[in-house]
Amino acid sequence: MSETPLTPRQRRLHELKSLVDYGVESGIGVGHSLGVLLETLEEGRTVWTLKPSPATANALYTVHGGVIATLLDTAMGSAVYTAIADGALYTTLELKVNFIRAVALDGAQLTCEAKVVHVGKRTATAEGRVTDPDGKLIAHGTTTCMVFPPDGPSTADSPPPPNPGAALDALDPKHWPDPYPRYAVAREAQPIISTPLGVHLVTRYGDCAAVLQDNNWSHAHEAELFHPGVEHVDLPTSFLWMDPPDHTRLRGLVSKAFTAKTISALRPRIEALVKELFDAMVTKGEADVITSLAYPLPLTIIAELLGAPARDHPDLQRWSRALARGFDPDPLLLPEERDARTQAAREFVGYFRDLIRQRRADPKDDLISALAAVEEKGDVLTEDEMLATCVTLLVAGHETSVNLVANGLLALIRNPGQYELLRAQPDLAAPAVEEMLRYDSPVHMTTRLAHEPTTLAGHEFAAGDGVVLLFGSANRDPGAFAEPDRFDITRYAGSAPVNRHLTFSLGIHYCLGAPLARLEMEVVLRELVSRGLTMTMTTDEPPYRRNLVLRGMEHFPVRFS
């Protein structure tokens, strides 16, 4: 009786298993020499193990990082091999490894599970996790491989085309800690991706930049699509959600009070506050960076600038968080989150109306008093316009800076070589801030509506169609940035032209508070390196808050030494 012939996929798995067995039997291959063993082999998934031994030790007599990297590389590469077309070959383009904790040479077996994230015509991506016997995370990594297709026509068993749904998959809360591999899938699939919500996701840098700089794309009416029926209480419209000429007039008036000179004058206060916050964290030895630094720094600075007393800062933070959560499209909010947004807006309105009226009657040396005094050819800010500006500056600026501080320090922890470079060259602080803004954007997306029928990347849009610009994806677009998944604090330090990241937007809606956010983060970095501190995360994977627009961690426990 004849045997059933193997399918191309079965043949592929059998081929890989034979290669592994041959390596074990003949004693060849770096993985075999280190004791890396295959446990599970499936299409798009492999599991490998390693039992540490003295041969895998480093000078500190823990498992050498190169050994763990080899375990990850072996597992992820073999997973890619099982998923590409029969007869295809691959080679590694990029291998990225993040080390979470050291591993003692106690004989405890390490396990690495690797899964393919996507397979495209030219590249394939996989991710892997190394855990100890208790399931604790030791290291995780990603690999991007170049795929060399087989000669001749493809077969029906060839891998499916890139999946546009990966962009939506990246927005799933379980992927918030690292959505970037899925953004890569989406970018390769197509530049414009339609969604069941009736809006379109824009994944690539050039297309996002084009929308931001084209006034045919409106920010004034996006609430009609993304926040239908939202109760605005009596919270007036900010210039953030205006189009010209209203936007031009209001932003121009606000800019006369919120000047570069005003921001520059804040440096001594920012430096003193950062020193105070670091003193407290270092004294304790361990702190939640979110509650001990990332929140109190920008909140205190913007609240003091506006003239809000310190006793009111906890209320401002609570209201700010509720409104910031409400930036996400309404279909993504829970009923209680929409209710909290409404209540926060109501309390914000009452608070700032009182404060504005106090400053009109008795001006102080603060921004609200400066806004009240602004005048341009007889034009002044109304009370409602001042109110909207105060809420915008506090919520948008403060919440963005929280994520910048936390995401930036996380990038340094996970890229210790870059941290050592910053310690050796503190003047790289400013370009490091720019790379942090690009690499792990604190503002992950924004929205626009088409004023009139238009075309973008070959896609036809009718008037009123909405788009979501995925800054997180655009800032990692290889079409705009060399080695976009590499954290490089020198990227913006040289004289060669580099594309601007989109985190602070482009065009008429470029972030008014960007200079303040940059200044705060630069001061944090300079204080950090001046103390010679070592930072160690005390959790495997920090939890992320429920917020897509302002993506950031809920808690970030760090040990300082």
UniProtKB/TrEMBL annotation:
Residues 62-138 form the Thioesterase domain. Transmembrane segments: none annotated. It comes from the Bacteria. It holds the Pfam family 4HBT. Keywords: Heme, Hydrolase, Iron, Metal-binding, Monooxygenase, Oxidoreductase. Pathway: Antibiotic biosynthesis; vancomycin biosynthesis. Residues 150-172 are annotated as: Disordered. GO terms for molecular function: acyl-CoA hydrolase activity; heme binding; iron ion binding; monooxygenase activity; oxidoreductase activity, acting on paired donors, with incorporation or reduction of molecular oxygen. Coiled coil: none annotated. Signal peptide: none annotated. InterPro entries: Cyt_P450 (IPR001128), Cyt_P450_B (IPR002397), Cyt_P450_CS (IPR017972), Cyt_P450_sf (IPR036396), HotDog_dom_sf (IPR029069), PAAI_dom (IPR003736), Thioestr_dom (IPR006683). Involved in the coupling of aromatic side chains of the heptapeptide of vancomycin. Belongs to the cytochrome P450 family. PANTHER family: CYTOCHROME P450 YJIB-RELATED (PTHR46696:SF1), P450, PUTATIVE (EUROFUNG)-RELATED (PTHR46696). This is Cytochrome P450.
